[in-house]
Write a structure and sequence with these properties.
The complex is a heterodimer of chains A (426) and B (275). Chain A has 19 helices and 2 strands. Chain A has helices at residues 2-16, 20-33, 38-47, 51-64, 69-81, 144-157, 161-174, 179-191, 195-208, 213-225, 229-242, 247-259, 264-277, 282-294, 298-311, 317-336, 340-362, 371-396, 402-424, and strands at residues 114-116, 123-125. Chain A has a two-stranded antiparallel sheet. In chain A, a hairpin with a 6-residue loop joins strand 1 and strand 2. Chain A is elongated, with a radius of gyration of 36 Å. Chain B has 275 residues and is mainly alpha-helical. Chain B contains 11 helices and 3 strands, in the order H-E-H-H-H-H-H-H-H-E-H-E-H-H. Chain B has helices at residues 5-16, 34-57, 60-70, 74-79, 84-91, 98-119, 121-144, 159-173, 190-193, 205-228, 238-255; strands at 18-24, 177-183, 202-204. The chains are: A mainly alpha (426), B mainly alpha (275). At the A-B interface, helix 11, helix 13, helix 15, helix 16 and helix 17 of A face helix 4, helix 5, helix 7 and helix 11 of B.
């Protein structure tokens, strides 16, 4: 829209030349051509005369682009120097009588109490949760106690930050000890780009109601958004301590953290604790096994999945799921470790070491080992090899085969015979 | 004698209090630790036979004479008088008295079931055997070199093998937090010393086991130094404890399942929640 940009350029030049009237005229023309022109609204806010008009302009800028820092800064300045005066629910709009703290009708004129929709500015009955004119959802305002906090969120949702700030102040004055109010305040402060104040509000909400996981989660989100990992970590530990005796909540929080793409090692303690509290819960075992699998800690994954397999019926869907997961963990674990001959040798050394130490003890700690002991050492080593290679084969395959089990037992028996001959000092 | 003063002070300080493990963060295994319980059963059974049944049936002197056949005599092993391998095994199932037995079995039950849970039964049994032999060989080599004893003192007790099991636990769970009970064994007379202090400190397995190892190292050094001067310092077989520990550390590596070679347990309490 070249005509519009030309108008804007001319308006900016006029504003810089302190010709506010000319600039205002040009900017209003530009806005008439395109009422979504963020720059036009921003420049207009600098040339209008009243703070109320400035607020409207800046609110409109934020409605177009909620991330506009200049507009936020301007509104903050206005909040400090020219606060808004609004009294939506102080008096009845019909008879101007003072309204009580709750109820849907005015006690004086018996008319329904009306509220101003924060979106379109029209009156709507307070018993509605949606504006009758524009359809905007603004929450349940019937409880006057919660009205200001809900109104603040509603204003903040549509980018009207100054009224949102005003509603926050009203909410605080009305209900300073309500966690929900503080939570809403925190949400508004997030939108007002006041992270430290929002954190303080969340912390206040948590102090007032420490058993609500969503408060902790929202605070964690904020810390992550603000790139403050240490505080996020501390609060995760805090939430863990708070709910460490409640397995269902732990799982709920763990899953919420997983949805937020929190790294598995930060989520694991929640599931680990839940499993600790309910060791026979197969679903928890499967979840935890999966988490350890994601962390590539296949040994621990295998332990949990093995328990899940033991706790379930092989034919049940959960049992099949557990078995499949265990097979995957076994295969993945095997890939990471030593394999083949090297692995057999590692496992072989232990039993051979036992036989060798026995032979050494019988030979006065010298190599002067008797012929029969040498032979027995050979037999036990053979048994150890059979045992180790069968064990290796068993751990490499996901299914247990009878052949390897038999070989494992046979190897152990052969080793035991050789070892027995050495110990018996035949 | 004066040059031994620092060692003696450390020894006294280390022995003022004794920590006994109460619990750790490990989840209790679902499987019954059959090998651990069987080993405890054999130890208790053997002690009942040697301390209660035989003394009544064949007399105390005969029982003592019989028990010497099954104890480990380092000089006997070196001279070929005794069946070295067999006595290394049998001596690991004999105990001097009920307190000796109770202490050892307590530690075996605490640490053994956790290692068995991870290793499996057969491998845990093999690990225990490795520890029996390494502790036996350590006893023989260590005690033969002592100027006063020269390997002529009979050895008995499962503590060497149990230190091996503790070594395996250390290898696997060094960062695990152990809740302990403090016994004032070192500074109160006997009946009182078994009343635990009302304080249950939590410490890492590394510190807890390190404390035991430090005690054994200092005790071993003092035994050697005192024997050079012609005195007997202690009857605790630190050589068996330390060599059993080394055996356990080696054996756990050899017997770990292949997919657990990279395994290092991160306890909940210490695990840092990172982004």
């Amino acid at each position: 829209m070249p005509a519009n940009s030309e108008l804007l350029q001319r308006a900016i030049s006029a504003a810089r030349a302190k010709n506010n009237a000319e600039a205002r005229k040009l900017l209003l023309l530009a806005i008439e051509l395109d009422d979504h022109d963020e720059q036009a609204w921003l420049w207009l806010s600098s040339v209008v005369e009243s703070p109320a008009d400035q607020r409207v302009c800046l609110d409109n800028v934020l409605a177009i682009n909620p991330d506009n820092r200049a507009a936020r800064k301007g509104l903050r300045w206005l909040d400090e120097h020219a606060p808004v005066q609004q009294t939506e629910l102080e008096h009845c709009p019909h008879c101007n009588a003072a309204l009580p703290a709750s109820g849907d009708t005015c006690p004086a004129c018996k008319q329904p109490v009306l509220i101003v929709c924060p979106h379109c500015g029209d009156f709507t009955e307070i018993s509605k949760t949606q504006c009758m004119h524009c359809g905007h959802f603004f929450g349940d305002f019937r409880q006057r106690d919660h009205y200001y906090a809900a109104l603040a969120v509603a204003y903040a949702d549509i980018g009207k930050l100054s009224p949102a700030q005003w509603a926050v102040d009203q909410a605080l004055a009305a209900m300073p000890h309500e966690a929900e109010v503080w939570q809403n305040i925190a949400r508004v402060r997030v939108k007002l780009d006041r992270p430290d104040d929002a954190i303080a509000a969340y912390q206040q909400a948590i102090t007032l109601s420490p058993d609500q996981p969503n408060l902790y989660l929202e605070l964690l989100d904020l810390y992550q958004r603000e790139n403050r990992p240490t505080e996020a970590q501390n609060w995760r530990e805090q939430v863990f301590k708070q709910f460490q005796a409640e397995p269902t909540r732990l799982i709920e929080i763990g899953q919420a953290l997983a949805d937020r793409r929190t790294p598995p090692n930060a989520i694991t303690p929640f599931f680990e604790r839940a499993v600790h509290l309910q060791p026979k819960d197969v679903s928890m075992r499967l979840l935890l096994g999966g988490l350890y699998f994601d962390r590539r800690d296949f040994a621990t994954a295998r332990q949990h999945l093995q328990r899940a397999v033991e706790l379930t019926d092989a034919k049940s869907p959960q049992g099949q799921q557990a078995r499949e997961a265990l097979a995957r963990a076994k295969a993945a674990g095997a890939d990471r470790s030593a394999s083949g001959r090297g692995e057999v040798i590692r496992q072989l050394i232990g039993p051979v070491l036992i036989s060798s130490m026995a032979a050494l003890a019988n030979a006065k700690l010298s190599l002067n080992i008797s012929l029969i002991s040498w032979l027995a050492l050979g037999v036990s080593s053979l048994g150890a090899w059979l045992w180790a290679s069968a064990s290796e084969a068993l751990s490499s395959t996901s299914t247990v085969t009878g052949r390897y089990r038999r070989e494992q037992i046979a190897g152990f028996v052969v080793w035991l015979i050789g070892f027995g001959i050495i110990v018996a000092k035949v | 004698m004066n040059e031994l003063a620092p060692l003696l002070i450390i020894y006294v300080l280390l022995n003022l209090i004794t920590f006994l493990p109460l619990s750790d963060g490990r989840e209790r295994g679902k499987r019954i630790p059959i090998v651990t319980l069987t080993l405890i059963g054999i130890n208790v059974g053997v002690h009942v036979v040697m301390a209660v049944i035989y003394p009544r049936q064949i007399g105390e002197v005969q029982t003592e004479a019989l028990s010497y056949l099954f104890m480990l005599l380092p000089a006997g092993v070196m001279n070929g008088f005794t069946n070295g391998a067999l006595t290394m095994i049998t001596s690991a199932f004999l105990h001097a008295d009920w307190m000796h037995l109770a202490g050892n079995m307590f530690f075996l039950l605490f640490f053994g079931r956790k290692v068995e849970d991870l290793l499996g039964r057969s491998k845990f049994l093999l690990l225990y055997l490795v520890c029996i032999f390494t502790s036996g060989l350590g006893s023989v080599i260590g005690e033969i070199a002592l100027p006063l004893w020269k390997g002529t003192i009979f050895n008995l007790g499962a503590s060497g093998a149990i230190m091996g099991v503790i070594g395996a636990y250390l290898f696997l769970y060094s960062g695990e937090k152990i809740r302990t009970v403090v016994m004032p064994l070192g500074f109160l007379p006997l009946p009182l010393s078994f009343i635990p202090l009302p304080y249950f400190p939590r410490m890492t397995a590394g510190f807890f086991i390190g404390y035991q190892i430090a005690g054994d190292v200092v005790n071993g050094l003092l035994i050697e130094q005192f024997q050079k001067l012609g005195y007997n310092f202690s009857m605790t077989n630190s050589f068996a404890h330390l060599s059993g520990l080394v055996g356990g550390l080696i054996a756990i590596y050899l017997f770990l399942p292949r997919d657990m070679l990279h395994y290092r347990y991160q306890p909940n309490t210490k695990q840092r929640l990172t982004n």
